[in-house]
Every structure is written in C-alpha cells, then in structure tokens.
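Notes from hallway chat w/ T.B., transcribed later so I don't forget. T.B. wanted the structure written out for a chain they're using in a teaching module, and asked if we could keep both sequence and structure tokens in one place. Agreed to drop them here.
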Amino acid sequence: MLLVRGTDPDRFAFAEGVKTADYFKAIYMGRHKMIADTRARQVNLFDLAGDPQERRMLPPSSELDAVFGRLRTQMRATMAEAREIGTRFSAETAPLPDDMRERLRSLGYLD
C-alpha cells in the first residue's frame, strides 16, 4: 500500500509490504526516509539527499530526534488510517465482480 499526502514541506509518502513482507513499513518526508521492520523491532533512518541509494543509516543523534519523532508520529497516524480504510474497504466486504475476484486471486492478492 502506498499513501501520499500533503504539500511541501509536509508532503509524505507511506509504503508497506504486502503478504509475506507486511512487517516492513516506510515513510518518506522531505529529505529523510524511515524504514521500520516491525518483526525485528528495528527502525532505520536515511538522508536521501546525501545518500540516495540508502547505503548509510543515520546514527542516533540529538539533531535527528525531531526528524525521527516527526516521521514516527506520521507513520503511526498513517498506519491507523490505513487500518481504518482496510476495515471499511477490505476485499471481503467490497463488492467485486466474480471475474475480478478470480483475477485478483490468480495474482495472489486474495486467498
């Protein structure tokens, strides 16, 4: 799932893995990206302007506390919103034509 909201500098993008990698979550805001592995309980922060290939995790520092806090708060709010959307519009409750449901099943989106 990918959600994009806001206007600069508050524009962000949220992404999460699906199926077997649903424990990976990422949020991009400004020049920073935070990746959370909820299974391993690990969070990594990257500076995309200085390291666009995400090869160097930023070490914890007091200068980055505000950035980390802002990304973490936005990620939690977006995950809560995504859960609400998923509850209201899940594949189990949304009306889908049989041919569409079968196509989604063949692609691995439905069980």
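Follow-up for T.B.: The mean pLDDT is 81. Might be a good example for the class.
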